[in-house]
């Protein structure tokens, strides 16, 4: 299989019409022979700085809540669309009282912290850095600010890792850095920790560091459950390519790091450790999910939603596995990673607004097309405001200030359909690999590590058995009147 070894970065303005149009206010697309970034300010640093800037804008958007709305009743923080779990959980999860997560029982119904161990450690470290003096309002403000600083570092790590994963496509990471949903949701919860570890793991896999990839994915799974799905992706890809040794190294690394983090808490506070898993199992259908939409429209409480969600997740993952083994060309790692995580979210009992953060870095690697990315982002931004205005409506008493139930249902449908749309165009790229923008210059799988350029040893269709060759293009600039049109 022919592979490209040129070092010059691919320029989005020469491959993507939306990117080129957006560059006009800066003077138009950059020339083919321009020197980029000088000696210091190269693409990776530019992307990281932009991501930090967008994160800071998201902090500014939370300013009304930081100043007063978090502390003056529920409706205000919803009408200003600046809600965050972080300041509220500082007191109600025992951090203000110096309780030890998982070991000390909490007052109230929750009993123990309902987050995975590594996220709990992140929350605890932030509480150590939070000043213990002053009013509770001041302490909650400082706790949010400390967490925001730590999460900003995670955002910078994600930007750098995404920019470096596809060696010749660092500018694709601008999709993450400039994503409006990233800025709006980054400080709602602690998801960026797991996302940063996942992004670092994918970077290591792209460099052939299979065990280190596993270690980072194990740590990410100790912070949030979804990263373990990437091992399932690699199982099917390595099955098709016969790369069982690489897969085994990844699994061993993941199991070892996950156990290293979890075993001390499992041994010393079993009941507290299991809280996350029992809470996830027993949690009823909640905001943003297809199950809530069905329940509200039908009036059926869907008591069996846990079974339905599990069954649908397995069905979708099975379909993705079949797609992997029958596609005419082995799908790229990032493409399948996006599809599997999206399937998990779409089938879940809850689709919280910050869950979009799980998908944004994967979308930048899976399909770096600004048009489709912005369509999807528009639906997620609509949902972001939709959920807060709906909560404002339900929490404002007889005033009913906000979005009624029917409007919220439209917002749910919009962000579900937006995610499905991006899944559909990625599936189309898999079935028609000549339309895959990442492969258009002759690359195979820049994020695939040992899979990049590997021959297939197991497939399930005649189309997949046909020899496939990556042909480097003579000119990376695309004729938008022909091949670049979707």
TrEMBL record:
GO CC terms of this entry: plasma membrane
GO molecular function term, any single one: hexosyltransferase activity
Membrane topology, as annotated: Multi-pass membrane protein
InterPro entries: GT87 (IPR018584), UCP010361 (IPR016570)
Membrane-spanning ranges: 40-60, 142-163, 175-205, 211-239, 246-270, 306-327, 333-352, 373-391
Protein family according to the UniProt entry: Belongs to the glycosyltransferase 87 family.
Protein name as it appears in the record: DUF2029 domain-containing protein
Source organism (scientific name): Streptomyces subrutilus
Highest classification ranks of the organism: Bacteria, Bacillati, Actinomycetota, Actinomycetes, Kitasatosporales
